[in-house]
Amino acid sequence: MKKLYVSKIKSVLGFDIFYVDGNYIRKNINEEFTNFGEHFRFKFIPKKEFWIDKEYSPSEVDFYVSHMIVEYHLMEKGLSYSMAIDKADLVEEKERKKSKYFLKAKKKRGNFVDMIHKKLLKKYSEGNLKVWVVDGELVRDKYFIDFTEGGHDKVYSFIPANEIWIDNDLSFRERKFVLLHEVHERNLMAEGMNYSHAHHSSSIIEHFCRRHPRKTKNYLKKEFEKYK
Question: Cβ-count burial of 89 within 10 angstroms (0-12 exposed, 13-18 middle, 19+ buried)?
Answer without folding.
Answer: middle
